[in-house]
Amino acid sequence: MRAMICRQWGPPESLRLEDMERPPLKPGQVRIAVRAAGVSFGTSLVIAGKYQRKPPFPFAPGTEISGTVIEAAADAKAFKVGDAVYAVLDWGGFAEEAVAHEVNVFPKPPSLDWAHAVPLSTSYPTAGAALLWPRFMDLQAGEWLLVHAAAGGVGMAAVEIGKMMGARVIATAGGPDKCAFARAHGADHVIDYRAGDFRDQVLQITGGSGADVVFDPVGGDVFNQSLRCMAPEARICPIGFAGGTIPSIPANILLVKNLTVVGLNLGYYLGWSPHDARFEQAARMADLHRRLHDAVEAGALRPHVDRTFALEDVASAFRALLDRQVMGRIVLAM
């Protein structure tokens, strides 16, 4: 089978298209003929050797796929050959075939094509877990939700889920095109962060009260500014540091305003942490994915793919992503 292979840490341009043996099928796994694979900032860190998980060389990167089940282990009962699915992998997605634990595989909504099913692997579950799970943000109807990087794959998902839950959504994005994109996906108010600080604008929009819930994939100064435009007893969830800086949390502001900070690492529930929790968390994740599946079929969620690239053009796909030329997601089409 063909696969994009990483043999040393480096930029995406270091990946090479090679013919490789099919990955072995282990108990509890299914083999999938890959039709589409997601390109993400996190995967760029894996390729560079800067992610907390480092696969053994040589390996095919890629953790999000959609495709057709072509083989199932004897003890894998959830799916059968021919089923259309999307899946989360440890790695191996940038290939014509991949294997996945069946607890990390989910039925593809019939209304979505292969490319548009890919964001359901991690983008929508990240936003869904942060906003919907009671131990996290537990977003309620009528609350003010502030979503940063709202034109990105995870931010866009947070905007849509917020509207689905009846929240009043304020989105930040960079530039008029991305602001228009966020508004088209449901944001009630959009702030162009390139035009100045968003703090005063959030306070003005909310009548001085501030945001009740903040979804932050950016970190750095965005996180610090957010603390200063949050309502008393508000919640903020950092889910990444795309801005490149990990903020230090000023505990005095948390105390004075009675704020709650809850981080979310979705990878813990996917089996990507030192403790492999994917099996003990399988029912919880399956319930979240069923909820997202139903929302897609009801038209409440509309995954967006900015563009697709061929497998051999993966370096160009990463360059578009890292140069911030993307709205929604970028996908490799097999």
TrEMBL record:
Domain Enoyl reductase (ER) as annotated: residue spans: 10-332
GO molecular function: oxidoreductase activity
SUPFAM superfamilies linked to this entry: GroES-like (SSF50129), NAD(P)-binding Rossmann-fold domains (SSF51735)
Pfam families reported in the protein's UniProt record: ADH_N (PF08240), ADH_zinc_N (PF00107)
Protein name: NADPH:quinone oxidoreductase family protein
